[in-house]
């Protein structure tokens, strides 16, 4: 199943009802046992998906009809983060083991499937013009960038997996995981946007009763979304993206667009919000 969402204009956010905001920017219901569920957004043509293998069967990544392709990665590259228990990503039948919050990059042209009851694979894809191979990223072996401060309740560790020069090369995709420290609540504070890319956050590790208050929109007219575990938010290039959790959490960030320079972001001063 693949849902298609259109690109949106910044001014429409100010007057949108809560239901309209959620329909346009919140992605829920991605994870269902034995299925691959996907959303195609026309914002930089990113695809987000959840793949949940059940039993011992391999679960193949389908060539969803809206792609009009013989197979999913015919004209695309893929990032994978396992947000569940241990499992395998099969790339052209070769197995790669991924533990919780480990990641993988799969380049143009390859066939992908997933295996492992208990694993939950979050997938992000962008259009691609050349093959950048296959790579696995282990959170335990990745040196994080430490950000934030205790007085602002924003201490967090940012694990960069695919992030442009210095990281594994890609056509467009950038991908990583940020883990909020115990006792901190804020991600991406102070916030930013990046005019040259779309970014998507998938929140994970939240307990059932907790939520993240995710802030979006143009800096001087922000709105918010309440987001639960396993839900994602699409941030078009004009939108700030930041959030505060009511409990501990992590999130997967992924970007696609004009460049692969992680540092190409436009900071927004708190006074401008
Ligand atoms: O907590 C943070 O700060 C982030 O993780 C920021 C994201 O990586 C991001 O928004 C990159 O543009």
TrEMBL record:
<dbReference type="InterPro" id="IPR021120">
    <property type="entry name" value="KduI/IolB_isomerase"/>
</dbReference>
<keyword id="KW-0413">Isomerase</keyword>
<dbReference type="InterPro" id="IPR014710">
    <property type="entry name" value="RmlC-like_jellyroll"/>
</dbReference>
<keyword id="KW-0862">Zinc</keyword>
<dbReference type="GO" id="GO:0042840">
    <property type="term" value="P:D-glucuronate catabolic process"/>
</dbReference>
<keyword id="KW-0479">Metal-binding</keyword>
<dbReference type="Pfam" id="PF04962">
    <property type="entry name" value="KduI"/>
</dbReference>
<protein>
    <recommendedName>
        <fullName>5-dehydro-4-deoxy-D-glucuronate isomerase</fullName>
        <ecNumber>5.3.1.17</ecNumber>
    </recommendedName>
</protein>
<dbReference type="GO" id="GO:0046872">
    <property type="term" value="F:metal ion binding"/>
</dbReference>
<dbReference type="GO" id="GO:0045490">
    <property type="term" value="P:pectin catabolic process"/>
</dbReference>
<dbReference type="InterPro" id="IPR007045">
    <property type="entry name" value="KduI"/>
</dbReference>
<dbReference type="InterPro" id="IPR011051">
    <property type="entry name" value="RmlC_Cupin_sf"/>
</dbReference>
<comment type="similarity">
    <text>Belongs to the KduI family.</text>
</comment>
<dbReference type="GO" id="GO:0019698">
    <property type="term" value="P:D-galacturonate catabolic process"/>
</dbReference>
<dbReference type="GO" id="GO:0008697">
    <property type="term" value="F:4-deoxy-L-threo-5-hexosulose-uronate ketol-isomerase activity"/>
</dbReference>
<dbReference type="InterPro" id="IPR027449">
    <property type="entry name" value="KduI_N"/>
</dbReference>
